[in-house]
């Protein structure tokens, strides 16, 4: 694994998947059918949670995977092992996606080691619960936007010269973009920006045969919430408010990312899929 140390720091977030109980379910649920054979994917936040499940499923479907992550080296090592166990190549690059310089160097390394970029999954994010808007510090506000949406601009800018006809960009937004969240004002705002970014990016790229779509998960059992991303009160009943009455698992979200990455979704761009436990939203 490689390490790029732009502003890498050990915050409580995003947290280590290896320490969660129960363990999130990342394993693909069915045999691969070669839908991504010969492709190379970048998956941000690929060390754990939804990103790990996406990396595992992409590898099962034949893609080589570059995992970009912050500083959870044990989780990243595990994800690399998962990808390689599927017979695919994997590299892990540590650094702050909120840094434009890091994004540029990471893309250069992916091109050098894996040779192409066919799929870009902008999944990494952070959130911090606050009961009142006055509790959100300027530093937190800037950091949340830098991690959640600036990173998507920076990485997509860096990858754009390497994206060819047939490539796919898939961004992770959230059900909170559609429902709102009283204790996640800054996070939900970034997710609204991500949805608008996705729709506008689609308009920008579709003429070159590059599709841009998004996935808007509901409450999913990943390190993001139990490692400081949700209040203890919310965590106690996490996911119970969905029609299904439970949180989702990462491997219940990953197939949406697979569908949007492969030729099955060749006539879809600017769209959002909603693996959210049955919550009805417009969008």
UniProtKB/TrEMBL annotation:
Gene3D superfamilies: NAD(P)-binding Rossmann-like Domain (3.40.50.720). GO terms for molecular function: oxidoreductase activity, acting on CH-OH group of donors. Residues 1-32 are annotated as: Disordered. InterPro entries: NAD(P)-bd_dom_sf, Sc_DH/Rdtase_CS, SDR_fam. Pfam families: adh_short_C2 (PF13561). It catalyses: 2,5-dichlorocyclohexa-2,5-dien-1,4-diol + NAD(+) = 2,5-dichlorohydroquinone + NADH + H(+). Residues 1-28 have a biased composition (Basic and acidic residues). Keywords: Oxidoreductase. The keyword Ribosomal protein does not apply. Belongs to the short-chain dehydrogenases/reductases (SDR) family. This is NAD(P)-dependent oxidoreductase. It comes from Sphingobium baderi.
